[in-house]
Amino acid sequence: MRDDLEIVVAADENWGIGFMGTQNLVIPEDRRHFREITGRSAVIVGRRTLADFPGGRPLKNRRNIVLTRDRSFTVEGAETAHSVEEALELIRDEERVYVIGGESVYRAFLPYCSRAHVTRLQAAPPADAFFPRLDELPGWRLADPGQLREHEGVQYSFQIWERADRG
Ligand SMILES: NC(=O)c1ccc[n+]([C@@H]2O[C@H](COP(=O)([O-])OP(=O)(O)OC[C@H]3O[C@@H](n4cnc5c(N)ncnc54)[C@H](OP(=O)(O)O)[C@@H]3O)[C@@H](O)[C@H]2O)c1
């Protein structure tokens, strides 16, 4: 079983990640950080999160795998997978794969991940989508808390979480 996928997520202090289908707080530096990490790797994304991308289009320069149960769903520039197993099969030969949300996709793929790049925001905007609370999951540890940064009064850091049995 593959267990080396990585997660990229921005989570607030309550592990909130979104509100009404979109990200609840956006920090430009975090967008750059996201692009740097995901680079030219493959990404796995939920159909709802894809819908929130500009024009509903997949990310450029990366292999996009969209999770959907709708077998008629297609989108130019992306492949579709209809189950976790199907997605894992598609990425079998990929060296690096990033799971980029949203909530249901993070939850479904967490058991297959070994590292999470978490932009941790010290704020509590309204949220209705949440990331699993890694600080309460025994299998995970904060490997690097990152430096404290600030954008328009909001403090944040680029944290790295790893499975406790790694590194
Ligand atoms: N802060 C962050 O870093 C970040 C990153 C990404 C997303 N988000 C936020 O997360 C929220 C969206 O999360 P969400 O859970 O509503 O949506 P999502 O995970 O993006 O997409 C959900 C959809 O993915 C498909 N899906 C999920 N699990 C599946 C499975 N096991 N097999 C096949 N298809 C599956 C289904 O598509 P169908 O309905 O087509 O069947 C499901 O409706 C938004 O608020 C978004 O802004 C935040």
What do you see in this structure?
With 167 residues, the protein is of the alpha/beta class. It contains 4 helices and 11 strands; from the N terminus they run ββαβαββαβαβββββ. The protein has helices spanning 28-38, 47-52, 84-90, 103-109; strands spanning 5-11, 16-18, 42-46, 63-67, 78-81, 97-99, 113-121, 129-130, 140-144, 149-151, 154-163. The strands form 2 sheets. Strands 1, 3, 4, 5, 6, 7, 9, 10 and 11 form a 9-stranded mixed beta sheet that branches. The protein is globular and about 45 Å long. The model has no long low-confidence stretch (mean pLDDT 96). The protein binds NADP nicotinamide-adenine-dinucleotide phosphate (NAP).
SSE inventory with pairings:
Elements: E1 5-11, E2 16-18, H1 28-38, E3 42-46, H2 47-52, E4 63-67, E5 78-81, H3 84-90, E6 97-99, H4 103-109, E7 113-121, E8 129-130, E9 140-144, E10 149-151, E11 154-163
Parallel strand pairs: 1-6, 1-7, 3-4, 3-6, 4-5
Antiparallel strand pairs: 2-8, 7-11, 9-11, 10-11
The protein binds NADP nicotinamide-adenine-dinucleotide phosphate.
NADP nicotinamide-adenine-dinucleotide phosphate binds at residues 9-10, 17-18, 21-23, 46-49, 52, 67-70, 73, 82-84, 100-105, 108, 129.
